[in-house]
Amino acid sequence: MKPQVVLGLLGLVTSATTAIYIPGLSPNTFKTGDKVPLFVNKIFSEKSPLPYAYADLPFVCDPPKDAKKTLLNLGELRFGTDVKCKALCRKSVSADDAALASSFISNDYRVEWIVDNLPGATKYAAADDQARSRKRYKTGFPLGNVKYGKTNINNHVTIQINYQVKENSPNERYIVGFEVSPYSIDGEDECPEGAKDVGYQVVSDKPVDISYTYSVKWVEDKEISWDKRWSLYLVRTDPQVHWYSIVNSVVIILFLTGMVVIIMMRTLNKDIALYNEEEMKDDGGGDDSAGWKLIHGDVFRTPKYSGLLCPIVGSGVQVLVMTGTTMTFALMGVLNPFYRGGLVSFALFLFVFSGAFGGYYSARLYKVFRGQSWTKNAILTATLVPGLLMGIVFMLNLFVWSQNSSSAIPFGTFLALVLMWFGISLPLSLLGAFFGQRKAVIEHPGRTNQIPRQIPEPIWYLRPRVAVAAGGVMPFAVIFIELFFILKSIWKDQYYYMFGFLAVVFSLLLITCVLTTIVLVYFQLCEEDYNWWWRSFFISSFSAVYIFLYSMVYYSQQLSIDHFVPALSYFTNSLMLCIVYGLLTGTAGFISTFWFIRRIYSAVKID
């Protein structure tokens, strides 16, 4: 395959409104008679998050001996050469292997083959807004079916390759579609093209001989251009649903912005003016909103467990940089279905190299708290959260390994991740921390009292647990609708492509986290409660708890997982996603609140 480079740039609005378009790549061209490799990938199911490698299945044919020795190469097709009912192999399947095949078929597993980076798909008709039928693809084809109480394996496939002739070069052609029609036929029957009633190749828990056959058709398709061939695979959703989500988020932001404006323009300006012009009375003048001024000597007091807060916030900065950069490249069209696993690999790559930013900010915050060992803090920043996630992945991998799933991380890959962690991320964190600790300390406006001020009993809705739980509702409400499509793409093997909408929702999410945290922390300070450091992190990050609860609802309502290991895989991966999300939103709330508090206390005169 020729190396492919994506340089297309989509604007945010264009990406959001015409999201079904994926930028064109440099196409592979073929001539009549050229060899076209047919690759195999996996079998997968919406009923289980555990895929399996097709090449490891004991009841399917082995690659032909004359196939090019390439990883996952199932064989080669001759471009333009039709094949009708050709025998592939005859496989003797043991009772255990037949039972395994029956289990996979009963759980609706589908097979994914690949030609020219296009997954094989079954076609179906979808009605558009004008009620006109049009072709759509569903990725993969069924491994088998269950009819009349019997499990049947699909042992014949009709492969249809759709191609387009290159303009001004009739000898060169592009592949624009890969359709697979599977059949289950009795080994003695003829191939089923055009037949409505065929025999079935039954598999159960008994030994069986299975004859595999295939046919190939090459069809010129003038309707789909090469750069839009992926559009047939993308499940089009009504853009109005996404716009509704955005409008809903904007309404929430306008409400929060209004509250912040009232605080800044009325309450703060009034309080600051009175505080600067008059001598502050011991009782606070009876103005409840003036309570934030009374704690100026305690508001910057070093919090408990500050040595833990710095690494967590540093890791959050690392996640913020990774997410923002990944989103940017997704909008540019770099991360599209053409690059299999590109999103996860790219995000992991960026997370490793974003360690410098995490180490830098962690060191700056550590210096604010008068820490004594910046190297210890940098090492903790680089190991705390990644170590937690790596430990979870390793424990989950033990269970996935026991199921022989292809989603299990091989030991060599796991070792490579550890080497990247300690060989790249850790040194970069130390480098970022080195420059961070060399910067001048962030000075606070005013001195901190030696004796902590007593904190009065707060109003019930400003108690820490209630405020944190309430603060997480707003960010969750912003992403609630888009979250459904994200979970659907993750757990139902659908391609997520509407990165324009996702970028808008992500921006609105960050704004909501910032405004919500500032408002609730300000109300807390007005109640003379100066313990805001940790709370500013937890207020917006608590929406991760609601996301995890929503994933439980999604599991019960949308999925049909009924085995322990697949369920464990689902909830463990959901937990890790929520941890990363909580770091991102919590850090956004913390940094903005830190800036806000420094601004308001630097505006008053403190003797």
UniProtKB/TrEMBL annotation:
Residues 1-19 form the signal peptide. One of its GO terms (biological process) is protein localization to membrane. It comes from the Eukaryota. GO terms for cellular component: Golgi apparatus; membrane. Keywords: Golgi apparatus, Membrane, Signal, Transmembrane, Transmembrane helix. It is a multi-pass membrane protein. InterPro entries: EMP70. The chain crosses the membrane at residues 243-265, 308-332, 338-357, 378-401, 413-435, 466-487, 499-525, 532-554, 574-597. It holds the Pfam family EMP70. It is found in: Golgi apparatus; Membrane. Belongs to the nonaspanin (TM9SF) (TC 9.A.2) family. This is Transmembrane 9 superfamily member. It comes from Actinomortierella ambigua.
